[in-house]
Amino acid sequence: MPETAAATYWCELAWLGGQRAEPNVLIAVDGERIVRVEIGGDRSPDGSMHLPGLTLPAFANAHSHAFHRALRGRTHHGSGSFWTWREAMYEVATSLDPDSYFHLARAVYGEMVLAGVSTVGEFHYLHHGPHGTPYDDPNAFGHAVIEAAREAGIRITMLDTCYLHGGIGNEPDETQRRFSDGDAVRWAQRVEALGEQPGVRVGAAIHSVRAVDPTAIAIVAEWASERDVPLHAHVSEQPAENEQCVDAFGVTPTELLDRQGALSDRFTAVHATHASEADVGLLGDARCWCCLCPTTERDLADGIGPARALRDRGARLTLGSDSQAVIDPLEEARAVELNARLTTHERGAHDAPALLRMATEHGHTSLGWPEAGRIEAGALADFVTVGLDSVRTVGVTVADALETAVFAATASDVSHVVVGGRVVVEHGQHRTIDVPSALRDALGHVAQGTAR
Description:
The longest helix has 17 residues, at about 100-115. Helix content is about 35%, strand content about 20%. With about 450 residues, the chain is an alpha/beta fold. The chain has helices spanning about 80-95, 100-115, 140-150, 185-190, 215-225, 240-250, 255-260, 275-285, 295-300, 305-315, 330-345, 350-365, 400-405, 435-450, and strands at about 5-15, 20-30, 35-40, 50-55, 60-65, 115-125, 155-160, 200-205, 230-235, 265-270, 290, 315-320, 385, 415-420, 420-425, 430. Helix 2 runs parallel beside helix 3 (about 140-150), helix 2 runs antiparallel to helix 14 (about 435-450) and helix 12 packs across helix 13 (about 400-405). It is globular.
């Protein structure tokens, strides 16, 4: 992120990590960092930016596939399942090249920033050209995604994904060859060339036990451990995944990942929708993160994961937009609690502060940004203001501001977003990108590509 000058922001209300919002909070910023937080001032000091509404730490989107945004609205005709949806996703993947992906990702990340996201974990597995032929720059797609994030004003953790097989014991098909480096050693060699830069951190991902064999899982896990970087994996998203893993290896996906050394406090299990009681114990005992993606999980009819059981066993919960069915961190947060109500017939398993923590501090730490996700001196100056004057939120009191934001507000209520001390969104508008036009153009280009 570029250097920024000193600035002050006066917040009508701000959440500083407790059980309720605080009124009249001054946030002083120097460069990318918060240097001072003061509570209880009588008025906005001269020269400060006034942020009416509720200011929160900016959100972390802990699991994203940016190109899936091209599927929104296109996969809802008739019936189907995750597996039929996957065929439509492969069609989009086939149509992309680094240039078209740059424009699509830039627009999608712009949409994320408008929703209050300051950091995205991009679970990136589209690596090569048609038929799996590497580009002259083997990381052409990765560099395109990183540049897209930079232009959109969002931090990114590139979760470069190892994807080798088209199912347990199967060779990749024509489309999947674009995802595969051939083996885990060549995957590691390619990732080494990515390199970190301001606003960018590089982690690792194991696509799934369907796509990565046990020996390769161990290689990727060791690579991440040696570098002390995040390691993510899709885990038990579908019952068929569990059944195939048990048939092939005699253990569940979580047990296989544990056996190969993947589980640790740097590991994130994405979904864990069909995790067994034993799986929940393994993930909790290792202090893993578990990324829930409720809007995608319901869109694909995946099911409702054991969020409360995971939390109670010691796993930390985070949130992601995954397939971009919608991009709304507040919707993801409340869905965790509302889904629990549907399955338990009780209310209050996850209160508003806990849900906000999933969307902010937990997500950032799981992506390798432990200095973000809080409004306090020394933290990165990433924060978002949710307006409290819309038809969804008007009438709120200080006592119930957090609950109103989590259970009633939407991404449309985000008025301001500050990332690294820079105002990226002001009065609901991105400062440098016309996001609707950028999405329209990028999605139109992808549609032409899939039509050919």
